[in-house]
Amino acid sequence: MDRTIVVAAVAFVRDGHVLTVRKQGTSRFMLVGGKLEPGESALEAAIRETREEVGIEVADLVLLGEFVSETANEPGHELHSTVFLARKDVAAEPSALGEIAELRWTDMAAAAAGEYDDLAPMLEHHVLAKLREPAQE
């Protein structure tokens, strides 16, 4: 059995905070995003998942990176994530839709200081460090 989960995600950064979501029945916050559908590219999945999860239509996405980590909610699996950065601040405010139980603008400085204990491994160990690099914001 393949224990690899392939996903696409989008990082929205505003004033030193990144938009994170917590899915229903889970305790960890992660980026907006999810699994690719058959025949779908990572970019197409990122756009679709953003619309489905937070109700935002995005078009101006750039590749932030591809990362591998343990999963947040599926023990024994490995997560392969293609992460995009929304380069322009969107006019619409995000809303928790579909499987999303909660939204939070996570403070990146506080996360770097270890002040959160509820971040998904991919976000905590890979994406936040990349987002804090000078050229990202």
From TrEMBL:
<feature type="domain" description="Nudix hydrolase">
    <location>
        <begin position="2"/>
        <end position="133"/>
    </location>
</feature>
<protein>
    <submittedName>
        <fullName>NUDIX domain-containing protein</fullName>
    </submittedName>
</protein>
<dbReference type="GO" id="GO:0016787">
    <property type="term" value="F:hydrolase activity"/>
</dbReference>
<dbReference type="Pfam" id="PF00293">
    <property type="entry name" value="NUDIX"/>
</dbReference>
<dbReference type="InterPro" id="IPR020084">
    <property type="entry name" value="NUDIX_hydrolase_CS"/>
</dbReference>
<dbReference type="InterPro" id="IPR015797">
    <property type="entry name" value="NUDIX_hydrolase-like_dom_sf"/>
</dbReference>
<dbReference type="InterPro" id="IPR000086">
    <property type="entry name" value="NUDIX_hydrolase_dom"/>
</dbReference>
<keyword id="KW-0378">Hydrolase</keyword>
